[in-house]
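question for whoever is on the cluster today: can someone run the full assembly for these? three chains, 1157 residues total. i dont have access anymore since they changed the login thing
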Amino acid sequence: MSFFDLEGTLKPLTALKQFGKKPHTIPFANLKHEAADRYRGFHYNDLDECIGCGNCSTICQNEAIDMINLEGVEGTKGDSGLRPRVDNGRCCWCALCVEVCPTGSLSLTKDYLYVSEDPDSFLWTPGKDNPNGNEHISFHSTKEVSLNVYDRVPMRELEGSERVKSFAEVVLGYNEAEARAEASRCLSCGICTEVCPDHMHIPEYINAIAAGNDADSLRIIYDNNPLPEMCGKVCTRRCEDVCAIAHRGDPIAIRWLKRYATETAVSSEITHEIVNPEIREPNGKTVGIVGAGPSGLTAAYYLALRGYDVTIYEANAKAGGATMYGIPKYRLPIESLDKQIEYIQSIGVKIKFNTKVGKDISFKEIYDKFDAVFMGVGFPKAWSLGIDGEDAKGSMKAVDYLYMINSGERVEIGDKVVVVGGGNVAIDAARVSRRFGADVTILYRRRVQDMPADWEEIEGAEDEGVKIIPQGIPVAIHKDDNGRVKSIEYLKAKMVPDDKGGRPRPVAIEGSNTILEATSVMAAIGQMGDYSFLEEEFLERIKIERGRFVVNEQQQTGDPKVFAGGDAVNRTADAISAIADGFRACKAIDKMLSVKKEKKD
Amino acid sequence: MREKATTLYIGPQHPGITGNMMVKVQIEGDTIVKARTEVGYLHRAFEKLQERRNWLQSFTLLCRFCVPEPDPVEESYARAVELLEGREVPERAKYIRVLVLELARMASYMLWYGGQNGSLGLYTMGQWSVGDRNYILDLFEELTGGRIYHMYIWPGGVRRDLPEGFESKVLKTMDYLEKRLKDYDDLMFSNTIFQKRTQGVGVIPKEKAVEWGVVGPVLRGSGIHSDIRIDDPYEVYDKLDFIVPTEEGGDIWSRALVRRQEIRQSIRIIRQVIDKMPSGEYYNRIPNPHKWALPKGDAYARTEATRGEVGMYIVSDGSTHPRRTHFRGAAYAHGITLLEDLLVGENVADISAIMNSLGTCPPEIER
Amino acid sequence: MKELKDNIINRIKANFKDATEKNDYNYNRLDFIVNKETIPSILFYLKDEMGFIHLSHISCVDWLEEGELEVVFIVWSPKDKIKVFVKTRIDRNNPVLDNIDMIWRQANTYERELKEMFGVQFTGLVAPEEFILEDWQGPPPFRRDFDTAEYAEKTFWHRPGREDAKNVRETISNRDGEEIPDFAKKYER
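^ ran it for u. tokens below:
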């Protein structure tokens, strides 16, 4: 081209027109740019919502988040007590911590300026360093967006009308793929272990299932629970109530996963092979245990592992206590319990069946013969209703009914059964009666939502056709000419709110008597213990208050050689608490007898 | 009297170098006789770090591989993981990804305007284009939460859905930028100084181009029609209507023309994407990230970035952590062997112009 | 696509006896596994005779358990629009391969990186010693037995202020008296 290019020289000069235009920059610091609605600025944590699970700390790929103790934040059940602190020198503001927070308490704000004279001030405690940060929240994670999997893998069950026809187990259990998928939802925070009375190592065995090692999982479970298959089917699962995922979704199915792991060992021999417990050399000490219920069996198992010579005295024909004679077969098949008890016996625990302490052998004999005694006697007797006509034929206690059914006896109940009470025993009696073809009604003095029974059981009962009459207080049972139950009369009640802020109380409405036809009436309003086997001399030291033994934290009664646990001691009255009591007693007995041994040497 | 060769160290801190690398040249007078590049100032060992993070955590390191244009790297990684696992991505997510990629392409070209012209002394262009780039960064801030490092495209889809009113904002910004293109043309392409300095400089002959490992606009500037979006289409590029401009000549001028025409094509693509955006899911959820394992195998996915082919090769051994991730940057071939061969015989003053036109990006070379 | 792949497989296997193919991909990719001596000739063949003129990538994977390094070459044919992965395994304790930068000039850079990061010796490679790492005297750092966390602990110091970090699981188990057995500890998060 020519040297002097007119167009090429003049065209660029059109840039001069920019002189007249308004600048489009922001004159900082008079004006500040307001960040967008999704801006990723500094962290903010709602310190009350946060449960300290530490998932943010684990996902942070720069290891920028520490969990620390904060003043004013206490660890309680369901909260670890720790709170996250971000090292802003390492944080890259990727917001993955926000995406995996199970409660949604952690989020990012629109703040992006921080000025300090101290060059080392990188550490930032969200929520504490910016208490007003919740006014500027920008990047947060709702339940739909969060990376946690909030829906549980559904559990297959037998359908309602089908299952009434037999005592086949209602819950079908997870298969391998379902178990691995459910186990991979777990965050492994460990908050659940605190509320478990036995403190089972839950995150560890769930991670073992997720990794495909069912044998390792079984070994971890057997570390402090010798009846895991029973817990895997009927536990009250307090762990699931505080699960981190339960805050915004379905908790991890801890109980069903425990059941899956235990069912992979199909016989007691295989259980023994997998768990392969280390049994110490016999140390010459003996322990006697009264009652082969869950607390007695647990104490026996772990004491036998530590080398003690253990003998259990069981009044009934089979071991298991309330779990054998109280829980119906469709919840806990007897074969399953037998398998676990066989395994416990296979490591050397001796059980003497049909031996009632107080009748076939005296408590004093046991006290003198053994170096330590553990009492796991439970609450075998039931409260009476205390109304007229309770002595009629067909009027019985629900626990007695369940005992007879589980022992294989037949009981005449007719075709209309009324169960009085609202706890798990009442529901069990109702559903068992249903399976014998009766028309069942549950009569409870408060509302359905006040029933202390497990909500799963209540729903299961309703699916099977059991009717529930809430707010009914029984007053009399009417007999027919043969002395059999003909009907039950009850008063309707209204709920009166309690002045002191407690539960509303039922108050009977005068004149609202209703008659309900029935062929048998079962009372399931509570149980108490039978301590008649204890001789006078022991009652001075072994105190009983309000129907329960008084023990210290090591499950020791007033007599230092005698320990107690289970329903006869604790107020929670479920199997896992009994197992926890047995485990604690075992450790205390071990400590006491080792010290004595050292002293003797 | 014969002049002796002098060694000149250009870089690593030099306004003409696009990043931090050193070019050691031996010059006789004004002409370069030998060139050697030395890299290593920006090595952050990201690939080794990724082996200690699980598949989701390692996605946060990716955008830092290449600073001017972080999105194609995220896209390559996400597609490689999806290829390996066989994960389907919903339609809407694909359209949103194309939108983000094209916006990132425009933002990177704005930066390139600044760099290329700054190397020749025309600093005004840099002021304008970087200022206009901020409108695109505002769009990104609203969509993803970050202006430069987006961390938005991840395996399975995109991280969040489009916010309310986003489409109209994008279209307004596109109208504004299209108007500005004329100003850029007047100042830059019609400028006789620019033309004289760039024509015939840094020529890559057509026959040698592919052998030297040239990709992207550099290859298209040498007359070879090759673009991953057309040859090996990914996301929804096969449903969109755009052309891939090519120029003969192989010098800086041709490459600049190619880039200029691609900006116009990007605007076209963005308008089509906004028009055709379907509704539906935007993310195919992954399971719990702590326990997400990919099956054994390997995969290689590549994306067309402003500089060329950006590829990610991942190898999995069946666990939750990657076995090996290896990133191939477009500038990997351009920045070292190509640059050394190209600089021989050129003028010292043109080093910076040639580097900018090749699109050398040292963070990409060294990761 | 299927005929194209079959065609390529047949031609390669006819010319190179030790090539085994892997053809179970449902997209445009084909794998060949060869011995390391065949590498230069198969790459020449692919580039000159079959139109795979573009080299996308050369990568290396360390299979520590098997004692081998796997080197992968990824080539692309713009005409047929298909990718071919050529893989080979070399012994980890004596990794030697032939230099191929006469086929593609850019392979020089890839080989320098593999040499520095994995220790793979390319016979006939002419290149300066250092590439990305500067004054590095240790083992090839990308190998699996080089622990970067350990190296970081030894070389750098921690900024003070974070010593009070607590472990959530330990805090909870200390508070309630739970004793976690040792064999269970490997399943903590």
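summary bc i know u wont read the tokens: Residues 91-120 of chain B form the longest helix (30 residues). Chain B touches chain A at residues 53, 56-58, 60-61, 124, 128, 131, 138, 141-146, 149, 151, 160, 163, 183, 186-188, 190-193, 195, 285-291 (CB under 8 Å).
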